[in-house]
Design goal:
This protein is 46% helix and 15% strand. By secondary structure, it is of the alpha/beta class. It folds into two domains: 193 residues, 2-enoyl-CoA Hydratase, Chain A, domain 1; 45 residues, no CATH class. The chain has a six-stranded mixed β-sheet, sandwiched between helices. Helix 1 runs parallel beside helix 3, helix 6 crosses helix 7 and helix 10 runs antiparallel to helix 11. One of its GO terms (biological process) is fatty acid beta-oxidation.
Length: 254
């Protein structure tokens, strides 16, 4: 049983992956591994069509558990680095569309986790940043993804300085996709997730794999496109589209 992570099916097709580690949702190794395990379970659940990742109403995550990091030797750090990096990238592995619903703060490893989501939605009072450099460290999992999201120049500036950005700057950088009132964060995330509850799950998963393919996007797209011709949803969707146009197909997720 996970100590800090829960999964709730709030509506048909929609799961909420929630983590709560008082008082500030700092992510230690245990919490990171619990998040990864829960994400891997959701990835196999065919009834789940979209995932909302949510921390506390007050704070998504205040970042790294520096008290734990202060105790690790170089040998211990080398031993856990791959597992921690893999865990913080767990949202990118989920085949379903994912949205990080962010309140208060998403900094350090909290932001690294959120960078793996397909969409990031924040309250207009949120602060974001990767301040690990101020502790003599670097982000273990977020540098490459941050560079792809906002570009290498802005990414270097944020990582090298470790400074925080507010909601307006985060939106301008493209670091987040939507800014809402603080009290509306979860409701807005749920509204976004609902559009996939009855969607073509296999095609959505294929599209996500192409986005995650890195330099071989073209090759990945060819393979995924061709494989979709063996799915029920492709047959349903193309026939429906041909007869009635977009938006009326009733997909089955197979």
């Amino acid at each position: 049983m996970a100590e800090f992570v829960t999964v709730d099916r709030v509506e048909p097709g929609i799961a909420v992956l929630r983590f709560a580690r008082a008082p500030l949702n700092r992510i230690d190794l245990q919490l990171a591994l619990e998040l990864s395990a829960a994400a891997d379970t959701l990835a196999l659940d065919e009834e789940v069509r979209a995932v909302i990742v949510y921390g506390d109403e007050r704070v998504f995550s205040a970042g790294d558990e520096t008290a734990e990091l202060a105790r690790w030797t170089p040998a211990q750090a080398r031993a856990v680095a791959a597992d921690l990096q893999d865990a913080l990238g767990c949202l990118a592995r989920i085949p379903q569309p994912t949205i990080a619903a962010i309140s208060g703060y998403a900094v350090g490893v909290g932001l690294e986790l959120a960078l793996g989501a397909d969409r990031r939605l924040i309250g207009d009072n949120v602060k974001l940043g990767l301040p690990q450099i101020r502790a003599g460290l670097i982000p273990v999992a977020g540098i490459g993804r941050l560079s792809r999201v906002i570009g290498p120049g802005p990414a270097k500036e944020l990582v090298y300085t470790g400074r925080f950005v507010d909601a307006a700057e985060a939106a301008a950088l493209g670091l987040v996709d939507e800014v809402v009132a603080p009290d509306d964060v979860f409701v807005a995330a749920l509204r976004w997730a609902r559009q996939f509850a009855a969607g073509p799950a296999r095609a959505l998963a294929a599209a996500k794999r192409v986005f995650e393919a890195g330099p071989d996007t073209a090759g990945s797209a060819r393979t995924e496109w061709a494989e979709l011709f063996g799915t029920e949803d492709r047959s349903i969707g193309t026939c429906s589209y041909s007869a009635s146009g977009p938006g009326v197909a009733e997909f089955v997720g197979r």
